[in-house]
Design brief:
Elements lengths: L6 E10 L2 E11 L4 E5 L6 H8 L6 E9 L2 E2 L5 H7 L1 E4 L6 E5 H13 L5 H14 L10 E2 L5 H15 L3 E5 L7 H14 L5 E6 L12 E6 L2 E6 L2 H9 L2 H7 L1
Parallel strand pairs: 3-10, 3-11, 6-9, 9-10
Antiparallel strand pairs: 1-2, 1-4, 4-5, 7-8, 11-12
Helix pairs in contact: 3-5, 5-6
Length: 250
């Protein structure tokens, strides 16, 4: 039998506080693929990312989510994370009192079922931190407390490198980044790309795709995917704007 897709979304519908936001989303990401989901603000892109990870603030009212062939629609967020799903947040939360190294140690232990000492974790991440332009002292800072936008996003890429998820969903990772930080995030994605890992990169702007070439681009409008194509589709969005696709939908 052929191997099941890494991620398969079937006619997904979801609402928040009684308002429907996702209105029938279908999408398949195979291993080794990078997908870009592009749409204007307020179209429901971040809702899709949160629903994929089981955020309790949203109610799934229809459709199903499959990960590696298993229906994960009713799974808790921590179970999805342990299974190999990962979400890089648009606005990562500060966690005062919890150092980066202790957070990573706890997350990796939960992901793998293996207990790591702080020293073991430091040794494991030292080279990755250096590649991401992080000083060794960064590991002892409290998670995201006082971090610049670029440092927060570097930290998200560091988490991906440590946890080695099979599916990485990146929600507006380019938001608020300068060019140098954007390049570091893109280089991190490139380093982590493999035949066994898939990416769903959610973005409003085309500029992230100046550094990452997706295999598939989706245009997301008003809770739907309205068009799917190759990398050239991102260029069309840049040239024509989202209104052109809204008119097609209408």
């Amino acid at each position: 039998m052929p191997e099941a897709p890494l991620l398969q979304i079937e006619d997904l519908r979801a609402s928040a506080e009684g308002v429907e936001i996702l209105k029938g989303v279908s999408l398949t990401v195979d291993r080794g693929e990078i997908h870009a989901l592009m749409g204007p603000n307020g179209s429901g892109k971040s809702t899709l990312a949160n629903v994929l990870m089981g955020h309790r603030g949203y109610q799934v009212t229809g459709g199903r989510i499959f990960f590696k062939g298993e229906d994960v629609s009713a799974w808790t967020p921590d179970r999805r994370g342990r299974s190999g799903m990962f979400l890089a947040f648009q606005y990562p939360e500060e966690i005062p009192g919890v150092s980066v190294v202790n957070f990573l140690r706890s997350a990796l232990s939960n992901r793998t079922g293996t207990e790591y000492t702080v020293l073991e974790l430091r040794l494991k991440v030292a080279d990755t931190m250096k590649e991401l332009g992080m000083e060794a002292e960064f590991a002892d800072r409290y998670l995201n407390e006082g971090f610049s936008g670029g440092e927060r996003k570097r930290n998200e890429v560091l988490q991906m490198a440590v946890l080695e998820p099979e599916l990485a969903v990146m929600d507006e990772t380019d938001s608020g980044l300068d060019i140098d930080a954007l390049k570091i995030v893109a280089e991190g994605v490139e380093k982590l790309s493999s035949p066994e890992r898939g990416f769903l990169i959610i973005t409003h702007y085309q500029r992230m795709l100046d550094y990452i070439t997706p295999d598939v681009v989706h245009v997301f409008m008003d809770g739907h995917i309205v068009e799917t194509g190759g990398p050239d589709l991102a260029k069309r969005i840049e040239d024509e704007g989202y209104e052109a696709f809204r008119e097609v939908r209408a």
